[in-house]
Amino acid sequence: MTPTETHLIDVLSKGLKLQPGRPISPDTRIFGKEGLGLDSVDVLEIAVLLDKHFGIMLEEQNQEVNQALASIGTLAAFIDRHKPAA
Amino acid sequence: MQSRPQIPHEPPMHWLDAATLSDDGLTATASRTIHSDHPFTRDGQLLRSALIELMAQTAAAGSSMNASRQKKKVRKGVLAAIRDFHVTAAAPVGSTIHLTATHEKSLGSLSMARLEARINDQLIASARMTFHLDIE
To answer: What's the CA dihedral at A24, A29, A30, A35 to 10 degrees?
Structure first.
């Protein structure tokens, strides 16, 4: 697991109050019962968390964002591509 | 303050006495005095569920005023989600509730706001709400 994936799981678990003890891996889907159990309304919550913890501003829900929101791994890769330089 | 906030609700469900929007368009404030004939009072207090409705109407008034400034109109608004709803004190009959709705984030048709309700500057309830807005 990459450092970003580990950080992202921690941020989402605390920020979205996910069920403790639920196993989460890079392959875990973000939406739907088979994944984290989130739905489309939670996109805004995720957007706020990405801004607060990674400095990434989601301004529109375009195709790249939709693809990034597929799983923990794809979202972490999106963060790595877009996070501001330190 | 607007004399009658522009929200789609009609009496007896139009609950805001007045509302206004900050210059930056990010914060709506509203007020409502709770009278004894309010349909959502029990045992001299406003029901907690009514606080959610008051908060949602405050956000709706803010969205309406914001759209109006941009020569637009909110065609439809739906409360999609409520998070972190906390009530810390009751709202007794005779009190005036002051509400604020502060915009936090928008993405597509979804908009999120932080809501607070106060009586005499004391915080009595707070929540975060997500709305689906259809703006033309």
So the answer is: -70
Q: Looking at domain B2-135, which of 3.30.450.20, 3.40.980.10, 3.10.450.710, 3.10.129.10 is its CATH number?
A: 3.10.129.10
Q: So what's the ipTM on this one?
A: 0.72
Indicate whether this model's pTM tops 0.80.
yes
Q: Are B49 and B125 in contact (CB under 8 A)?
A: no
Tokens of residue B5, six digits: 């906030």
Check residue A3 and give its pLDDT.
Answer: 96
Chain B residues with beta carbon closer than 8 angstroms to that of A59: 107
Strand partners, B107: B110
Which of B36, B38, B124, B128 is CA-nearest to residue B81? B128
Domains identified in chain A, total number:
1
**pLDDT of the residue at B2:** 57
Q: Note whether B104 contacts A: Cβ–Cβ < 8 A.
A: yes
